[in-house]
Hints:
This protein is mainly alpha-helical. The chain has one domain (17-208). Helix content is 70%, strand content 0%. It is built from eight helices and no strands. It has helices spanning 21-40, 46-68, 73-100, 111-118, 124-135, 147-156, 163-196, 199-215. The chain is globular and about 60 Å long.
Amino acid sequence: MKKNEKPEQLIPPHGGYRKLKSFQVAQLAYDVTVRFCDRYIDKRSRTHDQMVQAARSGVQNIAEGSQASGTSKKFELKLTSVARASLEELKLDYEDFLRQRRLPEWPRDDIRRAMLIDSRPKTADDVAEWARKIKESGQSGLDGHSGQDRESIESTASTMSTFPEIASNGALALLAVACSLLDRQIATLEKGFVEEGGFTERLYRVRKAARGRGKS
């Protein structure tokens, strides 16, 4: 160990999941899903519970994995992967909702999706405000956007999009961001686990370093 270099900690800093962008977006998708299901899905149906639980699982597993990372990188990787799978399941539920009602699923490059992401919503109310602006496209809701954007949105919305369509596609846009963030997070965790190992390897290094200091 180099002079003035701090010894490796057996249990490094962990948790801090609230600062993770993946957690923040997943939590927003959860809040949006609860509101969506209460409004558009029969509360007595299994679909209602399954969608809410899938959204909750995404949030909870990110948090639990982050908290467990201090003693088990392997467990963190597993739980983060479970979170990713839960959000993928939720994406399918929204896609099914649109397909079964013959509502269009917007392409990934749709300007309306970009408007939502670019607005950096933090709450379900922020997403609801975006939906209102999309519904009122061509009116005051689009003030501040370029002529090209306005023309594109007005053309796309010419079929008089309904709130269920807008809300579903908005949720899908948020989930796409959350899943992309989790994919990158999982790749980083995998690389770290391969290069540094987990708790057992760290325990060996810490013990070895402690013995070395004792002999000096």
